[in-house]
Amino acid sequence: MAKKITIRDLASAAGVSVTTVSQILNGKGDRFSKATQEKVLHLRDELGYVPDFNARNLILRSSKTIGVLVPNLNNPFFSTFIHGVDITARKEGFIAIVFGANHEVDLERFYLRQLMERSVDGFIIASASITAKTVDDLLKPWHTPYVLFDQNENRAGDRLETDDYQGGHQAAAYLARQGHQKIVVLHPKLPTININNRLKGFVDGLGEAGVTFDAKQWIVPAELTKAGGYQATADVLSKKPTAVFAENDEMAIGLMRGLHEQGLSVPDDISVMGYDNIDLDEYVMPQLTTIEQPLHKIGETATKMLIKRLKNPSMDWQKVKLAVKLVERDSVKHL
Ligand code: RIB
Fold this sequence. Notes:
This protein has helices at residues 7-14, 18-25, 34-47, 53-60, 76-91, 105-117, 132-142, 164-177, 193-208, 215-218, 226-231, 233-238, 249-261, 295-311, and strands at 65-70, 95-100, 122-125, 146-149, 158-162, 183-187, 219-221, 243-246, 271-273, 290-292, 319-322, 325-327. It is α/β, with parallel strands linked by helices. It folds into 3 domains: 7-51, no CATH class; 63-161 and 296-322, Response regulator (Rossmann fold); 164-293, Response regulator (Rossmann fold, 3-Layer(aba) Sandwich), CATH 3.40.50.2300. Strands 2-1-3-4-5-11 form a 6-stranded parallel sheet, sandwiched between helices. The protein has a 4-stranded parallel sheet with strand order 7-6-8-9. A two-stranded antiparallel ribbon has the order 10-12. α5 links the parallel β1 (65-70) and β2 (95-100). α5 crosses α14. The relative contact order is 0.12. Bound molecules: alpha-D-ribofuranose. Alpha-D-ribofuranose (RIB) is lined by residues 75, 77, 150-151, 192, 194, 224, 248, 250, 275-276.
């Protein structure tokens, strides 16, 4: 295999110094003649020179790389979030390296360490199992900036969240306005802090609408996945509700399949509402009523927060909370 062309090889072929090549390739070559600049650029392409990123990183002390850790790459919530990270990072001259670890603590720690060894400039972490202990054990000693988002415990550090309490409250108020009082909530057995806030808002919202909510009677455990909602179908039907609030859209979509297989019609026989507003919501029938989280903006904001931290390491902690809103479609019936 041919030897990789180095900057010295390129400089020698062009008959100029390494510094001249470096400045021309980094867009700082105006003081050199047009002929010299064109010669260097032509030879770069002809010889196939590509800068050695690690060598440049040693000089620039920045890999211009952001490590992103999410729970579930299969969920459109996180893929849209990551798209927001990617576009914003690129605008700022960074790239994002993304890992999904499904709450497997050892795997998450492995990925964080691997990213650190690749000298990422900072982390965006959206995973409940990155606990305060992991932050103290791993992230703080590395002195690498991070933004915690979504599922983590409240703690010091730059933090981005959406208003889960308000989202649950809006869902409850909407279902109560549609006349529903017997409402099942699909809720994970091991809820993360943001999911618990969603439930708190929902229970308070029902209470303010004069609807009592007995958690023992109306909570059905389910994973925050399509399979989780689907597998909960029998438990849901055993409660004989008029409506179901699923704490994310994937659960709602999985449940809708289960209800269809039981010969039931949404919303005529039972209403279903989700949370997130992922793109699939407009492609299921009936289209899903939900609470919208600003998915792309979450990714964009987390990235801007991290890059702001990189530029201002000693500034005060950033705390940002983004609003959510009801998106009414066709899956909830007015009784
Ligand atoms: O759908 C994934 C869920 O996990 C979203 O509601 C998001 O808030 C995360 O907590």
